[in-house]
Design a protein that fits this description.
The chain is of the alpha/beta class and 259 residues long. The chain contains six helices and eleven strands. Helix 2 packs antiparallel against helix 4.
Length: 259
């Protein structure tokens, strides 16, 4: 197998924590971890986690900025599709049962760290995991898919993972009131109802007056659909964790299971 980028830390905490009380708190838990990582109170974190089983959408701050965004958010809520605002960029992705997430929460570094490298750090394990499941996965753009960018993971040309990043604060470990971290996040479609989710994403952007956002259902897939197998987010979580526990030591990274 291909070697991994040396930007990977030599030791990481592998966390499977989920916050059961609130869908939004569960999403923003990555940022709490980031603050601890930045202050060197915690190892760099690799978090594998599921959404709470609440059907909705996860959006960026830009998506709901201004009166039109706020009105669209309220209208979606009234239709039974709550919106949860994340700290990373990008556009809307599905939220709820049938979704899995991989978050890399690493301290900001002075040398060699770029958004491109962090996206590749995030996508490479996911591509290898999916290929280990005998799926034809690659990192690529998928024009017409939800939350498209240059660093999706696709199976046979159809998006299965969307990615986003956030950079916060200054260099980690420095004498600063706001030491920094990088959050690179992948949202993996396992068995979510993509027909309903993509229709909801299309309505949201139409309500918000964002006609330039065009999404096509046939540009996306789920792990269950692509593999013709009855995957659940729980089974996929266990599979991805097992892969990381096996693969990380092979590339010189020691995983420590979180508390």
């Amino acid at each position: 197998m291909t070697s991994w980028d040396p930007l990977w830390p030599s030791e990481v905490e592998l966390s499977v924590d989920e916050v059961p009380d609130s869908p939004l708190d569960n999403i923003l838990y990555d940022d709490k971890l980031g603050e601890q990582v930045a202050r060197r109170e915690r190892l760099p974190v690799v978090r594998v986690w599921r959404h709470l089983p609440v059907t909705g959408l996860v959006v960026s701050r830009r998506d709901v900025a201004g009166p039109a965004g706020q009105m669209a958010m309220a209208r979606m809520e009234s239709e039974g599709w709550p919106l949860f605002v994340r700290s990373t960029g990008g556009t809307a992705v599905p939220h709820g049962e049938g979704m899995l997430n991989l978050s890399l929460v690493f301290p900001r570094q002075a040398e060699g760290a770029t958004t491109d490298r962090y996206y590749r750090l995030l996508c490479q394990p996911l591509v290898e995991w999916l290929r280990g499941l005998r799926l034809d996965a690659e990192m690529t753009d998928v024009p017409g898919s939800y939350c498209d960018g240059n660093y999706n993971v696709a199976i046979r040309g159809r998006k299965v993972v969307g990615t986003a990043q956030a950079w916060r604060g200054g260099l980690a470990g420095m004498a600063s009131r706001h030491p920094g971290y990088v959050l690179a996040h992948g949202c993996i479609s396992i068995s979510v109802d993509l027909d309903a989710a993509i229709a909801a994403i299309q309505r949201f952007y139409r309500y918000a007056g964002r006609d330039e956002v065009r999404i096509e259902r046939d540009k996306a897939t789920t792990l269950a659909e692509a593999s013709s197998a009855a995957w659940t987010s729980g089974a996929a979580k266990a599979s991805l964790v097992d892969f990381l526990l096996s693969r990380l030591p092979e590339v010189g990274v020691t995983p420590r299971l979180g508390p």
